[in-house]
Fold Sucrose-6-phosphate hydrolase.
Amino acid sequence: MEHVTEKQDHQTRVKQATEAGKAKQNPDAAFRLGYHLMAPSGWINDPNGLVFYKEQYHVFYQHHPYDETWGPMHWGHAVSDDLVHWRHLPVALAPGDAFDQSGCFSGSAVDDDGVLTLIYTGHNVVNQETDELYQNQNIARSVDGVTFEKSEANPVIPAQPVGMQRDFRDPKVWKEDGSWKMVVGSTEAGKGQVLLYQSSDLENWEYQGILAKHNGGNEGYMWECPDFFKLDGKHVLLLSPQGIEPEGNRFHNLYQTGSLIGEMRDGEFVRGAFTELDYGHDFYAVQTFLDGKGRRIAIGWMDMWESPMPSQQEGWSGALTLPRELNLSPAGKLRMKPVEELQLLRVTEEQLKQNEISGTFLIDGQSNQLELEFDIDLTISAANIFGVNVCCSSDGSERSTIQINRSKGTITLDRSYSGIGVSGARTAPIEIGESLHVRLFIDRSSIEIFINEGETVMTSRIYPKESSTGIEFFTEEGTMKLRSAHLYQLKNSWLTD
Ligand code: FRU
């Protein structure tokens, strides 16, 4: 009987949470995005449970449907046939059972022989005043991909290994050589690390040891959201460390997301230095999955902890990035480029006639839901500093500046005049060769910049006025020669029943 009551309880909580989220929907709110993953309303953070299941793409996310600020974490849910057009599904997980009393934290999903299985962290606050809490790992299953039942075996991993600290979260599970493997974020003696587990049935897990740990330098005190996979002949560990200190132009966000690239040698992961994956202000907790075509696709949270979030005035907060395909460059650099399906978003195409820019050249972008793609010929461009201002207001008070400095080999995204709430610049390294390919996606309150097939990527939130639709190419002393430039208006990608 007890079990039946608990099951009904979970479904009741799920229903309430779904209805609460629906009731506060406001699709016309000024900062709502047109073609990015978001919740119907309320707060979201990390992407969770990315999976290709029964020929559809499922994306879950950390969600607080009752408020636009972080709170007891639920799992929100959306589905797509093509990675572009999305439909909201009911909330998948609600907290409040004995093993996830205070939150269903981040985790992953697998297709277990037709059963969609979520593996997630139970967050349990024992005493708020003394800050006593514990974290464990749990599973929930669905046969229809919509309604999830938490397992009677929960918690499937009740506690972290002896001697480790209580931060023990964000399981990422995959199948390898016939068994299930899991990486989990952890910390020991104030230093981040990733633990490895193994199972034959997703319920009984055996601890295998530490897969990777802090090198003693500037690598953070806790490694959140690990993800481990093979890519183009190497092994890649993605992680989101807390506590990395700024160094020059690097690591200026509160927390970082990046990669350790290496090889498995005699069961040991031998890896290089931690490298950021995206150099913008707002990219965190990335997760990947393999799609039906063998691609490794990454989606991140397009915000940062403790950042200003002006959309909270509109009753919502948080979005996920565009899906990006990962690969390694011939030099071994991790690249992220927008998945090719995103071309389905294009509704109009305009080819810019001007091919040589000296000083400034202004066009009307017509909206803030667009893609701008251009190729600069560096063999005959003379300017050292050049770039483009986007989301420019006609009175000159608003703009988001993307500036390339050729002699320094850098790109800078400056949000000093990007609208309300946000500020500050981020600078990233770029390869200066014979040409520079720039692809920009603007979606009302977001900007994603992909340089040279995703070698350098920057993602940031901006909050300009709806009327700030100007695009201004600029050079400082000298010319910039464009081989080609295209502007595409992009459509909304949310489907309603
Ligand atoms: C990362 C994170 C995870 C945790 C979740 C809680 O942003 O802190 O480690 O599971 O968010 O919402």
